[in-house]
Write a structure and sequence with these properties.
The structure holds two protein chains of two kinds. By secondary structure, chain A is an alpha/beta fold. Helices cover 59% and strands 13% of the residues of chain A. Chain A folds into five domains: 169 residues, Up-down Bundle (Four Helix Bundle (Hemerythrin (Met), subunit A)), CATH 1.20.120.1730; 103 residues, PAS domain (Beta-Lactamase); 64 residues; 154 residues, Heat Shock Protein 90 (2-Layer Sandwich); 139 residues, Rossmann fold, CATH 3.40.50. Chain A contains 19 helices and 16 strands. In chain A, the strands form four sheets. In chain A, strands 6-8-9-11-10 form a five-stranded mixed β-sheet. The longest helix of chain A is centred in the first third of the chain and has 87 residues. Chain B is an alpha/beta fold. In chain B, the strands form two sheets. A five-stranded parallel β-sheet of chain B has the order 2-1-3-6-7, with helices on both faces. In chain B, helix 2 packs parallel to helix 3. The chains are: A alpha/beta, B alpha/beta. The interface between A and B is medium-sized, with 29 and 28 residues.
Chain lengths: 779, 145
């Protein structure tokens, strides 16, 4: 019950509560005033009653007195006959009706009214008696005594008066009773008023206290509690869910509780997120991940950091991170790193760091400056990796590389010296043998045959030396291959052309069927060497009047070249030894010229160019050998993957295309440049000349925007072309191309070249040089 | 003044540390009819002999033990004054393409690898002598300022 009232009270809106709190004492006050008023009213009424009773008593006495005096006056008049004695009688005649009239108006008491009625009757009887007496006196005159009427009248008057007196007495008595009763009542009323006043005062007091209580319980205490809750909320503590009224304070409390719950939920989520994050960071073992404050003191630490650096988090937290740097200038270096991180946002460093136990490790360190939303520096995160093993491996690798390089250099030097030392005496041998041959030619003596033997042996020795050295160079990686796109068809045609004299001398016919084949990636000179070797073998080991067929076809990403002869072929059991040095299997090898190194060298060369070489019996099953090799294609479509796509060059439209003049005698290089241009500057026009003079003519005709000039041209050297171009077109950028690394180092820019590129052409470098030259020209 | 020198009058300086090769060169040149030939096995005296002998053609071995052949090639090239042309033919046992490029880049007019074909050698020498004589004639016919 109390609870429900309390709830009811709590649920009232604040305005109602305020009204109640103000109204309670006000009502009590008003009630008190009303009560006091009514008490005073009762008291005054009681007093009035008392005063009325006293007035009635006076009036009754006055009636009695008037009648008594009138009676005495009439008796005197009767005796004396003097009218002056009638004066009281007259007055009584006049006043008694007035007084009785007044009494009638003021008497309310029933008993007193009965008395009054009798008194009035008696008074009028008296007055009647007196007037008869007066009339009798006037009639009779002086002799009143003898008059019987008078005597009877007097006697009757006396009776009436007595009766009157008796009535008045009775009335007086009644009035006294009334007076006493009213007096009592007055006293009672006064006492009651006193008590009432006391009670009202008490009620006022209690009411005020109650109002204060209501105010306190309904508002103040709850506001205070709310305030305490707010403090708790501010401190981030949780608020308990509790019964709160539905007034504004209650709603406020509910909102605060909700806010607290929300806060708690968010805090929980945050804590869980942080916990997860912390667990992840702490659990990482391979990376030392920790945080620094803006001064560089360690403020967090993970397992990886402990594992790498040897410090536990208890030991390291609060220490400056320069602890991790070895050396006397540890602090300066560490602070420089921080300053760099502050300046650039992050810094990465590799270097020696020191563990707790004093050992060093090679660390990769990334320091990132941490800034809050306002951009204020809050600290740093530091990620450290122990890459000592990698560093050691690198060092070992570097060491091994240096050793290998030294060994290679030594080998290279040895080869170079060997070459020189072997060739120098051969020079004299062969030279003098040639001179001797000249002197003895045509004489037909035995000397000529001997000299011929010397020359043959010498040349054989020279070929051996060349091929052994080539093989050794390939093995040492010193052959200096220039892998460029090579037009295979042209190269085969050239090899066939070079082999024709030998073929004719053996009566062999060479046929070749080469389709359109994209350029292969090869060293042209060495490819030619391989082709010549295979053709030479096919000619030498052929039957008289036989054929050699050379063909090429694309097979996937490769081109397969086959050289097929009509000789007796190779014994299948010995085919595996074909490419071993000094293996000469074919019948009649003894009388066949050759070093026995040709196929070994060919294999080494082809493999160095990224290809494969092999032997197979003829596909048609007939006698004869089929030697084949495969080389990778360099289709222009293979180029784009290696190259970034460039933006179109400015200010060139279809009406006025970018024109590039390429003066280059190597067709493959020119094709490469055209392929690059087609991809990167599709709007560009390429004009190609293979000779210097033609290049100049084309320049005059087309006014190119750029010239790519090979320094080694068949007719004039590139230097001359450069001068001529400079004379005709002072602003025309010329990019030089040269295979000669030494020539590339000359000061070409002072002679008017925009750039010098070495062959084999590096496509990104070509793109950059061309675009830079064009941009400079445009600007 | 016109001196119509014949090729056989050309002066040829050969520098090689190998006497057998010098002997071969001399034999070939003599056979070709050249009369003024000087052989030098000690390259340190090359500049001195060059200035004294005033050759029309220098035959230079690049691989000699006492001196860097390329440096010698460079310095001999510089001995020839501005506006003059004294061809240098390099004779080397180094067959690498790098050696050829380097020698030619340093001013060699021709390069012959050893062992050489004596006929080819003789023809190349004749070409360079012809070049030298034509250059000489050209400068003599051109009025000097």
């Amino acid at each position: 019950m109390v609870q429900s009232v309390s709830n009811w009270w709590a649920n009232r809106p604040l305005a109602t509560k305020g009204l109640v709190v103000v109204a309670v004492p006000l009502l009590i006050f008003l009630g008190s005033v009303a009560a006091l008023y009514s008490i005073s009213r009762m008291e005054s009424r009681a007093e009035q009653d008392v005063r009325l009773t006293i007035a009635i008593q006076n009036d009754v006495n006055e009636v009695h007195a008037l009648l008594a005096e009138a009676s005495s006056g009439v008796r005197g008049y009767l005796l004396t006959g003097e009218p002056r004695f009638l004066e009281p009688y007259d007055r009584a005649e006049q006043l008694v009706p007035q007084v009785t009239q007044r009494l009638r108006g003021s008497i309310r008491d029933a008993e007193a009214s009965v008395h009054l009625a009798r008194i009035e009757a008696l008074a009028s009887q008296k007055r009647e008696g007196l007037s008869q007496l007066v009339a009798a006196r006037r009639r009779t005159g002086a002799d009143v005594v003898s008059d019987p009427t008078i005597t009877a009248g007097l006697a009757a008057n006396k009776q009436v008066l007595d009766a009157l007196r008796g009535e008045i007495e009775g009335m007086q008595e009644r009035e006294r009773e009334l007076l006493a009763a009213r007096q009592n009542r007055l006293d009672y009323v006064r006492f009651n008023g006193l008590v009432m006043t006391g009670l009202l005062t008490l009620a006022g007091l209690v009411g005020s206290l109650f109002a204060v209580f209501l105010f306190s319980s309904g508002i103040v205490r709850r506001v205070q509690r709310l305030e305490r809750d707010a403090v708790l909320l501010a401190q981030g503590e949780a608020l308990d869910e509790r019964e709160a009224g539905r007034d504004e304070i209650g709603l406020l409390a509910v909102r605060m509780t909700e806010a607290s719950a929300l806060l708690r939920a968010r805090e929980q989520a945050l804590r869980e997120g942080e916990e997860r994050f912390r667990l992840v960071i702490e659990g990482v073992r391979d990376y030392g991940i920790f945080a620094l404050d803006p001064q560089g003191k360690v403020v967090s630490w993970n397992t990886g950091a402990e594992r790498i650096k040897g410090w536990t988090s208890d030991e390291i937290l609060g220490r400056h991170f320069s602890t991790f740097y070895p050396g006397d200038d540890a602090h300066d270096r560490s602070m420089r790193n921080l300053a760099e991180a502050v300046r650039d946002g992050r810094m990465e460093d590799e270097g020696w760091r020191i563990r707790k136990d004093g050992t060093l490790f090679w660390a990769n360190v990334v320091i990132t400056a941490l800034r809050d939303e306002a951009g204020e520096l809050r600290g740093f995160s530091k990620v450290t990796r122990d890459i000592t093993e990698r560093r050691r491996a690198q060092e070992a690798l570097e060491h091994a590389r240096q050793e290998a390089e030294q060994a290679s250099t030594a080998k290279s030097l040895f080869l170079s010296r060997m070459s020189h030392e072997l060739r120098t005496p051969l020079n004299a041998i062969l030279g003098f043998a040639q001179l001797l041959e000249l002197d003895h030619s045509g004489r037909g003596n035995t000397d000529a045959a001997s000299i011929d033997q010397i020359l043959r042996a010498g040349r054989h020795l020279l070929a051996l030396i060349d091929e052994v050295l080539d093989i050794a160079r390939i093995e040492a990686g010193k052959l200096g291959m220039e892998i460029v796109p090579v037009a295979l068809g042209e190269t085969i045609a050239e090899a066939v052309g070079l082999s024709l004299p030998e073929a004719e001398s053996h009566g062999i016919t060479i046929k070749h069927s080469i389709g359109r084949v994209a350029p292969v990636a090869a060293d042209r000179r060495r490819l030619l060497q391989v082709l010549l070797n295979l053709l030479s073998n096919a000619i030498k080991y052929n039957r008289p009047g036989g054929d050699v067929v050379i063909s090429a076809q694309v097979a996937g990403e490769q081109v397969r070249v086959e050289v097929v002869d009509t000789g007796i072929g190779v014994d299948p059991g010995q085919a595996g030894d074909l490419f071993q040095p000094f293996t000469r299997l074919a019948a009649g090898a003894a009388r066949t010229e050759g070093t026995g190194l040709g196929l070994s060298l060919s294999r080494a060369l082809i493999e160095a160019m990224g290809g494969a070489i092999g032997y197979s019996p003829r596909a048609d099953g007939s006698d004869g050998a089929c030697f084949w090799f495969e080389l990778p294609l360099t289709a222009p479509s293979a180029l784009p993957d290696l190259l970034p796509v460039r933006l179109p060059l400015p200010n060139h439209t279809a009406d006025h295309p970018l024109t590039i003049l390429v003066v280059e005698d190597n067709l493959a290089n020119a094709q490469l440049i055209e392929a690059v241009a087609a991809r990167h500057w599709p709007e560009a026009r390429i004009v190609h000349a293979m000779q210097a003079r033609l290049g100049l003519d084309l320049a005059l005709r087309h006014s190119p925007d750029l010239v790519l000039l090979d320094l080694h041209l068949p007719d004039m050297d590139g230097d001359w072309v450069l001068r001529e171009l400079g004379a005709s077109f002072p602003d025309l950028p010329v990019i030089l191309l040269t295979a000669d690394a030494i020539a590339a180092q000359s000061d070409w820019t002072s002679r008017g070249a925009a750039a010098v590129l070495t062959k084999p052409i590096d496509v990104p470098a070509l793109l950059e040089a061309v675009e830079q030259a064009i941009m400079e020209r445009e600007s | 003044m016109t001196t119509a020198r014949k090729p056989s009058d050309a002066r040829i300086l050969a520098i090689d540390d190998e006497p057998a090769n010098l002997a071969l060169v001399e034999a070939v040149l003599t056979r070709e009819g050249y009369r003024y030939f000087e052989a030098l096995t000690e390259p340190r005296f090359a500049a001195e002999r060059h200035l004294a002998f005033k050759p029309d053609l220098v035959l230079l071995d690049l691989m000699m033990p006492s001196i860097d052949g390329y440096a010698l090639l460079d310095s001999l090239g510089r001995l020839t004054g501005e506006g003059d042309l004294v061809p240098i033919m390099v004779l080397t046992a180094d067959t690498t393409i790098e050696a050829k490029r380097r020698a030619l880049a340093l001013g060699a007019r021709d390069i012959v690898t050893k062992p050489f074909d004596v006929f080819e050698f003789a023809l190349r020498v004749a070409n360079l002598i012809e070049l030298r004589l034509m250059f000489e004639r050209l400068t003599e016919e051109t009025p000097q300022p």
